[in-house]
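User: I'm putting together notes for a lab meeting next week and I want to include a structural view of one of the chains we've been expressing. I don't have a solved structure, so I'd like a prediction I can at least talk through. The sequence is below, exactly as it appears in our construct file.
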Amino acid sequence: MILFVASLLIVFSCNYEDKKQSSFEQIQNQILTTSCAISGCHQSTSDPSFLQHGLVLERSVAYQNLIDQKPKNNNALTDGLLLIKPFKSEESLLYHKLNFASHHQSDYGNKMPLGLPPLYVGQVEFIRQWIEAGAPKDGNPVDEKLLQDKTVPEEKFDALPPPPAGKGFQVTIPEFEVAPNFERELFLYKKIGNTQDVYVNRIEVKMRQNSHHFVLYDFNGQTPPALIPQLNVIRDIRNPNGSNNVFNMLPMAYHTYVSGTQTPYSDFRFPDNVVLVISANAALDMNTHYVNKSGTPIKGEVFMNLYTADYTAATKVAKPINFGNQNFNLPPKQRTLITKSFAFNSSVKIISLTSHTHQLGEQFVIKINGGPRNGEVIYTSTDWHHPQVINYSTPIVLNAGEGLTSEITYNNVKDVAVKFGLTSEDEMGIIFGYYIDN
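Assistant: Thanks for the context. Below is the predicted structure for the 438-residue chain, given as structure tokens.
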């Protein structure tokens, strides 16, 4: 009888070991499947966002798609990161994307899961220790008690230090609240603080997580005085009930693009001897957009540094490109290619390009329109949320009458048609960038 009971205990023990989930299976079941491999994100190649990230985390392919795989984020790739680099959590992009308190200043995009509550401290530590143990598919190198730690992390967000005295200006959008399950987009018209013309050669921006974009605007010479905003007053384009505040949207018709970013941290630098001119006593309109998909309020905040340089006879003045299309219709349940061409009135040299769409934008291609290089592709981005910014070491020369063509592939997975609009549920198609006179 003693031998029989002992045999049963051994059998039950073996069966328990057989059924016990490995550390990776626990990560898959408790984190990836519930927070990442969800519809619209990393569930399948059919997700609208797939072309942006190229990463499916469904259980049958998640492990092979993560281990020793190169990221699509150009900055992470340049820094030598892999999606998961066994034994090296600090060189694993997944760890940084999930770690809400990550100290990295590098532009690796927003933390994940985007717009949802961050992972608990114990979950992130479990993943870190698993990576440091070699990220095995089988076995249990990490104490599963870590997954019982439900401590909510605090976002590590340090203020951006201002430029050194006499080397530039800092302008901020002070901390504000974004209500649960709400998109908050606002404008703040502020003076830069320059008493004379200044020449900007570097623009640095830092924002809290869950930002959709930050754009800096000026107003053109046709702006009616009544539509010039009051200084230092927050202007929301949505009312608390989600309806549009039409009056606050009217000044947008007279905006001219100055600078912008769609990532929480960016550091844009103009080529040598190229500057952006900011007129004396300038006031600029700052625009930021935050998306909160969680059930609790989140914070937004923006810091912007404008670094200045001396102006010499060799200095070239950068001029913004803002070529947008507001006239398109995307039928439901299908892909649509929208093409629009834009021309320059004089000979120019393009020094930088980027793109802007919302979540239905699968691919944004920019081609040269006209001249001997007609039809040549000079820009491609498949990541609507963190579009590539290309700075051309050899500027692209275009003669008067030549220009750019945007070819944007949208995948409207919705049951209704989608047109141009300001919310993340609407769509846009804009070429941003800079050029200098040839």
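A couple of points you could mention at the meeting. The first helix runs from residue 2 to 19. The chain has eight helices and 21 strands.

User: Perfect, that's what I needed.
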